[in-house]
Structure formats: structure tokens, C-alpha cells
Amino acid sequence: MQLGEKLTNLRRESGLTQDELAKKIYVTRTAISKWENGKSYPGIDSLKLLSKVYNVSLDELISDDDVVAARNAKIKRSRTFYWCAVGCLVFAVAFILAAGLSSVPWLFIPGAAGVLGYVGFAFASKPTLSGMPRSQFVRYIASRAIVLAIVVGIIVYELVRIF
Question: Is the pLDDT of residue 116 over 90?
């Protein structure tokens, strides 16, 4: 049984509405709804409060399947953002090169949009930066910054060459 199903069953067995439960554990009703529908997962503090409200252990509340499912969902989301970032980078480079080769300056506009998309998706591709070791965090930021600098350099070079 998934965590959302467990939470729904425990809440109903306790005779609580989502609003009542939300007030007891200091979250919104929307958060409870998302947890029960499997769209998000409660944090550790909320899980502790839920275990107290329902009088169950954390082990009973969360099984290994739930932890694995949450981790797999984060990995899938991270991969999706990664491939979107790669797509934006390819899109940007293609339009920047097309603008440079054809001397049509307006082609830089979609190229610049691709660069912005790359930056956004590249940073979103990492599921969490908070628990990352400092050296890995520096490498992560530096790699994105280097690619961004190269693409911006190409844009500036081509703009100067055209105008």
C-alpha cells in the first residue's frame, strides 16, 4: 500500500476531515490532499506528528516501498529537467549559429530564450542541493556556469560580428 493510501485510511479510521488533520499537524488542507493523492510527500516533522496523531510508529507509517517510490519520483523529475536543459542548449546553439552564418540578427532572440531555458532547467535538474557536499556543489555550479559562459560568449561574438 502506498503512503497516500495509508494516510487516507488512517485519517478516515480516526474520523478526521482533512481540515481537522491539517490543524492538528500545522499544515494546510491542500498539503494533506496532495499527500493522500500521492502528488507530494510529507516532511519528517509532519510524519512525526502524523505518527502521534494516528498512534502508529514511523515504521508502520512509512514502508520501504514508499521511500523507494519517493526517491524514484525525484530521480525521474531530475532526468526530465536534465533532458529539457540539453534540448534548450541544443536549440540555443542551433539558433545562434544560424544567426551567425546567415547574418540575420533576429535569430538571436530564440537563441537567447534557449539559453534562459537551459539555465532554468539545468538548475532544476538537481533534486536537492541542500545535502550536497561542498566540493560537489561547487563542481555542479561551475559546470553550469562554464556552459552558460560559453554560450553567452558565442552570442556576444556573433552580435559584434553582425553589427
Answer: no
